[in-house]
Design brief:
heterodimer, A: alpha/beta, globular, B: alpha+beta, 25 helices
Chain lengths: 215, 800
């Protein structure tokens, strides 16, 4: 099992956002997590990505529990095993598209030039490789973000509303690319979205409500 | 409506108190340094004016002896008989236990009534002034210095410091002299008079420019101080400009909304102007208070400098006029207007539909960089124009200001090019990102870095000048003060016995006899020397004919000091008209630092022959070092010579160096203050940028760099930028030093110093700037390192 989440809890003040959420993702599997705004989808994704600690429960990636890890170990885990895609793209503004795509792979010491070139081509970014984020459209920026997440061939991709900032047509194209590339890379994909239409295209879908995950 | 708009605008400052503090502090510091310097200048000028009133007889013409000798009483009587309304003045130095004081003797019955001296005598009453042996009038602080004087000293408020005056007879007695120094010519004269040339052919009528000499002489020093004040003010304005720019950019959404709901562009600008005016007044008040403290702290050193360099006396206490306070507010308002004009202009042109660009402040377009480069080239052209075409002190400062501004404006583009090169040659993702990200931060930090460049360049430039001066001055002192003991006999009658006594006890006795006179239209000192290896071996000659000392030994030629040579364009071979109507040839030019007057050295025998009245009581003694004390003691025992009449070389050198050190203590203090302000500019820029940096840093953190590492990288970034700025500041500082030494000093003081390099001082300054940048970035870096992950996650949140 690639990702195993058990009885996850998280509160902000008196408000319990996650109240015993449990689910798992196998290697190569696509899982969509839906829920209303404010239901805790992003929080759950952040905890799984080691960006935020939980109040209780456990998260294991490839059998490694996150709870005992310090800041440094979590950073290493993100660098080596996880690819992150955000709604706001969150590219590094000072680097061009090509450098953004290769950045995490190079951090992890796994920059495969051939794979990155192929990835850039499949994402339709070859002509835009030398452009900086501010020179790219929203769809192009999100494609760069997907490329960055996949370049290091991580075991797990975490995507938080990856098409939330895009129009429907562009969103569809980007989502297709994300699914197909993840599948081809053999990575597991946990995608958080409030769009039922997009969620329906994942292999599995779960719904987060009142802090708990239901099928 | 007004209240609603003001409430919306001012709410920003409630939420951003640190930004508000930055703005006020920047402006207060800028105002403080400027006002402080102006306070010092005002105090000094007030002292000169008071001195001029007393000394110069209130701007009246004077009659002086052509050869610089005293005017005999008979000549004065002849002039009076010839119908001339003139009043005699005798002038000289008297010594109290608190130091020397310039004494002026006047005749209260014939003195023009509107001079300050005559007014004070009249206020005291003639009986008081003349009776009971006569009174010596002086300002209270000066009177204290004369407490042990063998005369009745009356303290009088409002008199110039460092000057005392008394009735003519009292002064003649105290000064132990005969004849008058000059005669003041009344403004109202009878219709018919015999020409002065007929009655007194050896007298010359002189316009009252001598009274202004002090002010003119010290102008250069005050201009120097003003330039420093201006530099500090400019550095302070960088902070204000940054703070105002950021505050306006962050309030852009508010401005846009206000415009959208019906506030006109004019109203918006008006309200913002009112807001800035109030802030400027608060900061101005704070700055003026700080300026007063700066001035009070620096004034004693300035007073010492003016006394040491120019003989000008300035009181050590500040008495500031309401004009100074008002000017403080004006400069604060002007500074704010200057620093916020661009931001206000952009607000005036803001469209209600303009998109919010919260990070626009930190992004400079390529256009801005190009504009800065064009402006830099223009400044460079202006400064080079000033160098080639201009002349005088103002041109010198124009050259200086143009160069500094050009360097500051070119800094962002230069740094960007260097960082781009580093980015291209970097290996590894973090290194590449580091250089690229550093380059991206440049626009946000460029103002602070420009301020740092200015402060560092000024430090290197002034430091190089002062150190070059110190080295040259020390060497020059060794050359000039070659005699081990300098002796002044109590009277000429004592001299023959003293010389006979000293002959077997010394290696050589060198007469130091001098007189004063007008050379080429300006007062000058004329010294006589004998031929001796002391002069041949060590006199600091800059240019000379090959057989200069042989000619002096033959009683021929004259040496002139550098100031006189530069002012009158004299060189070896030039003809030099001397007081008394004779001529000689310049055979050499020597350095004479710190002397505001022209000086001529001629053979001793010629001096005595041409000026028979010259006082012959001063001698330099060449004595083996281990016998210095014995000779001094013997002179006291045998001749009852007061210790003050003997100065040994070491004390004289120590005193001269002390004067030197105090001279540059003020510039040193201003240097440190400017560097401190630049450090503050970096801190405020980094802190304001820190919040805006999160969206740029959070993705890197999410991709696998820890917060601690990011914090360390932020610290390193500041150090790298400071180090690069420092390296770039070195050539700028050296050019500045060259301008100071080769242009400003020559114009201001009349001498040129050789430029020396002091790399160790640069290393020290480099370390200091790294420390300042490190300290400034430590806080923001630590804040980043300990930032809760929740803050960073917020960057990725969907519902922001």
């Amino acid at each position: 099992m690639l990702l195993d989440v058990r009885n996850l809890k998280k509160s902000f003040g008196d408000v319990a956002i996650l109240d015993g959420a449990s689910f798992d993702v196998d290697a190569g599997q696509t899982l969509a997590l839906t829920g209303e705004s404010g239901s805790g989808k992003s929080t759950l994704l952040h905890i799984v990505g080691g960006l935020e600690p939980s109040d209780g429960g456990s998260v294991e990636i490839d059998g490694q529990p996150l709870a005992p890890m310090g800041d440094g170990e979590r950073a290493r885990l993100r660098r080596d095993a996880i690819g992150l895609v955000f709604q706001q793209f969150n590219l590094i503004p000072s680097l061009d598209a090509a450098s953004n795509i290769a950045f995490q792979a190079r951090l992890a010491g796994r920059a495969d030039a051939g794979w990155i070139r192929e990835l850039t081509g499949r994402l339709g970014l070859t002509e835009h490789a030398a452009k900086y984020p501010e020179e790219l459209s929203g769809g192009q920026q999100q494609r760069v973000a997907i490329g960055r997440a996949l370049a290091a061939r991580p075991r797990l991709i975490l995507a938080d509303e990856p098409t939330g900032n895009l129009d429907e047509d562009t969103g569809d194209i980007v989502f297709d690319l994300l699914l197909s590339l993840t599948r081809d890379a053999g990575a597991g994909l946990l995608i958080v979205t409030h769009s039922e239409r997009l969620a329906a295209r994942a292999e599995r879908r779960l719904h987060l409500s009142h802090g708990k995950v239901a099928a | 409506m007004t209240a609603a708009i003001l409430s919306a605008l001012l709410s920003h400052w409630r939420r951003k108190p640190f930004q508000l503090a930055t703005l006020i502090l920047g402006l207060a510091l800028a105002t403080a340094l400027w006002s402080g310097v102006q306070a010092i200048n005002a105090e000094a000028r007030q002292s000169y004016a008071r001195a001029a009133e007393v000394v110069g007889g209130g701007g009246l013409d004077e009659l002086v002896h052509l050869g610089g000798s005293p005017i005999p009483v008979e000549t004065y009587a002849a002039l009076r008989r010839g119908g001339w309304r003139v009043s005699p003045v005798v002038e000289g130095w008297i010594f109290g236990e608190g130091g020397r004081v310039r004494l002026l003797g006047i005749d209260p019955l014939t003195a023009p009534p509107d001079t300050r001296a005559a007014e004070a005598a009249a206020d005291l009453g003639l009986t008081e002034f003349l009776g009971d042996g006569g009174a010596v009038l002086a300002a209270p602080t000066t009177a204290e210095r004369l407490s042990d004087l063998n005369a009745r000293v009356e303290p009088i408020d409002g008199l110039a410091p460092g000057i005392a005056f008394a009735d003519l007879d009292v002064a003649l007695e105290l000064l132990e002299t005969e004849g008058f120094s000059r005669l003041i010519v009344h403004p109202e004269q009878p219709l018919r008079q015999a020409p002065i040339a007929e009655i007194a052919p050896n007298l010359e009528r002189r316009a009252p420019d001598a009274a202004e000499d002090l002010a003119r002489l010290t102008d250069s020093f005050h201009l120097n101080l003003t330039a420093f004040g201006l530099l500090s003010f400019a550095v302070g304005l960088f902070i204000v400009n940054g703070a105002v720019g950021l505050a306006f950019e962050q309030r852009r959404p508010v401005f846009r909304t206000l415009r959208a709901i019906g506030v006109t562009s004019r109203q918006l600008v008006l309200f913002l102007t009112i807001e800035l005016t109030v802030l400027a007044l608060i900061a101005g008040a704070l700055g003026i208070g700080l300026g007063y403290l700066v001035a009070a702290a620096l004034l004693p050193d300035v007073a010492a400098t003016l006394r040491g360099l120019y003989g000008a006396t300035v009181e050590g206490a500040l008495t500031l006029s309401p004009v100074w306070w008002a000017l403080g507010f004006v400069i604060a308002l002007l500074g704010t207007a200057l620093a916020s004009a661009n931001a206000l202009w952009r607000v005036a042109r803001l469209s209600p539909l303009a998109a919010a660009k919260p990070r626009a402040w930190s992004r400079a377009s390529a256009g801005t960089s190009q504009t800065q480069l064009i402006l830099s080239a223009l400044c460079l052209a202006v400064s080079l124009g000033a160098l080639v075409i201009g002349g005088g002190l103002i041109s010198g400062f124009l050259l200086l200001g143009g160069l500094l501004l050009a360097a500051a404006l070119a800094l962002p583009a230069t740094l960007s090019a260097i960082l781009g090169l580093a980015e291209r040659t970097a290996k590894g993702p973090i290194s590449e990102w580091f250089w690229a990200d550093t380059r991206q931060q440049l626009p946000g930090l460029s103002l602070a870095l420009m301020a740092l460049l200015l402060a560092l360049a000024a430090n290197i430039g002034v430091g190089t000048m002062v150190q070059s001066f110190r080295e040259t001055f020390t060497g020059w002192l060794d050359q000039r003060l070659a005699s081990e003991i300098y002796v002044t006999a109590e009277s000429e009658a004592q001299v023959p016995d003293m010389l006979a006594f000293l002959e077997p006890r010394t290696d050589a006795i060198l007469p130091i006899w001098d007189t004063e006179g007008e050379v080429l239209g300006a007062p000058a000192e004329i010294y006589g020397v004998v031929d001796h290896p002391t002069y041949r071996d060590s006199w600091p000659l800059l240019h000379a004919v090959p057989d200069v000392w042989n000619r002096i030994a033959d009683g021929d030629g004259a040496l002139v000091n550098e100031q006189l040579a530069r002012r009158e364009d004299l060189a070896p071979g030039s003809t030099l008209p001397m007081p008394g109507g004779w001529e000689t040839t310049v055979t050499g030019v020597y350095s004479d630092y710190g002397n505001p007057l022209g000086q001529v050295i001629i053979p001793k025998d010629i001096l005595v022959a041409r000026y028979p009245d010259v006082e012959r009581t001063n001698f330099g003694l060449r004595v083996p070092k281990d016998e210095i004390d014995a000779v001094r003691t013997a002179l006291v025992v045998e001749f009852g010579l007061p210790p003050d009449n003997m100065i040994d070389q070491a004390s004289l050198k120590a005193f001269s160096l002390q004067v030197f050190e105090r001279t540059f203590a003020v510039t040193g203090a201003l240097n440190v203050l400017t560097l401190g302000v630049a450090g503050l500019a970096i801190l405020t820029s980094l802190l304001t940028l820190a919040a805006m940096r999160l969206p740029q840093l959070a993705p890197v953190w999410a991709l696998g760099l820890t917060r601690e590492r990011l914090g360390r990288i932020e610290l390193l970034r500041s150090l790298v930028l400071a180090a690069l700025t420092f390296v770039l500041a070195i050539p700028v500082g050296l050019i500045l030093a060259w301008v100071l030494l080769a242009v400003i000093n020559v114009e201001a003081f009349g001498w040129r110093l050789p430029m020396m390099l002091f790399p160790l001082d640069w290393l020290w300054l480099g370390a200091l700037s790294l420390l300042a940048a490190g300290l400034a970035s430590l806080w923001p870096a630590r804040r980043l390192a300990s930032r809760p992950p929740a803050d960073l996650i917020r960057v990725f949140a969907n519902e922001r």
